[in-house]
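Q: Could you fold this chain for me?
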Amino acid sequence: MLNVHIIPILSDNYAYALEAPNSQELVVIDPGEAAPIIAYLDAHGLKPTQIWHTHHHWDHVDGIEDLSAHYGGLPVFNTKNPPADHFAEEPLEIIKTPGHTLDHICFYFPKSAIIFTADTLFSMGCGRLFEGSATQMWESFSKISVLDDETLIYPGHEYTLSNAQFCLKQEPNNQALIERLEEVEKLRAENKPTIPVTLALEKQTNVFLRAKDAEEFAQLRALKDKG
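A: Sure. Below is the predicted structure, expressed as structure tokens.
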């Protein structure tokens, strides 16, 4: 099983260090800021061998140059230059998820049942549509929704509390959502991450994932954009 290190960066981003047991391989995913990642890795005696990023937005890539230089030059993989179809001995599936950006991808490891969704799927939310359409994002969500329910979701931001509050306004009688909000409030009060979260729980609590079609999805996204 792969070991995921959650590294908070910037104001609300998450970068990740993905470690393969019994291997020297370690990849950093979406390094939007180098300094806290370097501090974390050095404190834990870890040394990256690769850098991956899910899309081109600055808060997911701005730390690449400094991070790579600090460790003597690292290969960088992305949608135009994708990584191999495995990491160490773990199969890797690259899922194209346009919507937030047209080049957005997610990294899915079926054996370990983990997926890095960055700014496509958040816990109880979805990314803003900067380049793609609501239909594209709906189709991207559909690709994720068919994965194993126990898949752990690692998104790109800590937006869970505000997302939960929005979802509860749409489904005020959703008991799973009420319980999830209580859990999230407690975690954030302790300054702890609210992720990862299982796909099964997202199917119960994420109104975007629960939308029946692209039209309903678009209506929800427009409503969320209004604040």
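A (continued): The first strand starts at residue 3 and ends at 9.
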